[in-house]
């Protein structure tokens, strides 16, 4: 089965833009991430349309609430048929376990957000956290694994260290991926696609370098060629 490692972030404000881009891309070369903005604008109907077109969907809504509420939301996402859904590891053990138990099928992967890639040491100090970012990511990742989740979202900078303590069957999804000579935009903890794969990432979330490219399909093809055959280097 085809298992594309690139997840294209559809950070759009309307369904029309999303469907137009999906028609230009290749379902065998990528999956699609739908976040809060697009899901709020277009809802589950868009998810269904993209799945009918053959795309697998990462529903990136970062659920974080009391255990019962998060569990119910995850069940709905699983019933919708999405490939992957995520929750915040900061919700704690009870919430993580409730979400895992709520999934109606193992076909939907459940991963946890550790720290947003927009947060650095200064930002963490602003909210009263004095630990280094990786120490927080490490603790939350081990908690997610212990609760039976399939993996975590982490920056590529943290993937290398995580891979040394967590086996390869635990998925690492890395946003903040930027090709060489590409603007970092609002991402602070970034890496190139090749670097992220070598450091242990399983799936790469790439947005603007593809979605704002004059030729999105060509850019997607080039990025796939760059990482073809690459594996984690311990």
Structure description:
The protein is α/β, with parallel strands linked by helices. It is 43% helix and 15% strand. The protein has 10 helices and 8 strands. It has helices at residues 15-24, 36-52, 67-80, 93-102, 121-126, 133-146, 156-163, 193-198, 208-211, 216-227; strands at 6-9, 31-34, 57-63, 84-88, 109-113, 151-153, 171-174, 203-206. An 8-stranded parallel β-barrel has the order 1-2-3-4-5-6-7-8, surrounded by 5 helices. The longest helix is centred in the first third of the chain and has 17 residues, at 36-52. The protein is globular and about 45 Å long. Residues 184-189 have low confidence and may be disordered.
Short account of what is shown:
Helices cover 43% and strands 15% of the residues. It has 234 residues and is α/β, with parallel strands linked by helices.
Features:
234 residues; alpha/beta; 10 helices; 15% strand; globular
What low-confidence regions span 5 or more consecutive residues with pLDDT below 50?
A: 184-189
The helix/strand series, from N terminus to C terminus, equals EHEHEHEHEHHEHEHEHH
Number of helices: 10
Could you estimate the helical fraction of the residues in percent? 40-55%
Per the principal axes of the C-alpha atoms, what is the gross shape? globular
Strand content: 15-25%
Work out the number of β strands.
8
Strand count, sense and closure of the main sheet? Answer: 8 strands, parallel, barrel
Rg over CA atoms, rounded to whole Å, is 17 Å
> What is the straight-line distance between the termini?
26 Å
Order of the strands making up the biggest sheet: 1-2-3-4-5-6-7-8
Q: Label the structural class.
A: alpha/beta
Average of per-residue pLDDT values: 91
